[in-house]
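Notes from hallway chat w/ T.B., transcribed later so I don't forget. T.B. wanted the structure written out for a chain they're using in a teaching module, and asked if we could keep both sequence and structure tokens in one place. Agreed to drop them here.
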Amino acid sequence: MATKKKIEGTETEALANPFEAVMFASKEQVEKSIAASTEALEKAFSMSKERFDAVSKSVDDAAKLGKDQVEAYVTAGNVASKGLESINAEVMSFTKTQVEDQISAAKAMMGAKTLQEFIELQSGYAKSAFEAYTAHTTKLSEVATKVAQDAFAPINAQVQAAVEKMVKPLAA
């Protein structure tokens, strides 16, 4: 003989034994608790996975940034090295030309017949040597400036890219 009773807000058919009715109600509570626990665990797992993915992406970004920085420094070093080679070649060429000009001027001065001719040759040589030196230092200054700009270009580009990566999330 079963009687209908309200248990936990639902109409159920309670068994004649009160112990069975309590067991039935307890079973419903356990099922609700399991469902709530399962939902909470799934939500927590989902949040943990999202955090793990975010951390993983951050680590990957940091590794890429480090790699990009190393590549920028290597490129800058190579450019600077080639630039210094060209500066060195320019200095060596200038020095060779100056030594040749000095020898030529010395031979001409030794062949001078008068003191006036000697002074004119020496003054002419001094003027041309000074003009050559001035032109050479101007050229070296321009080459050195270009080498410095070219060498720092990859580093500047990398710094700019890193700043943009950091500022972009903050602006959003």
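Follow-up for T.B.: DSSP finds two helices and two strands in the chain. Might be a good example for the class.
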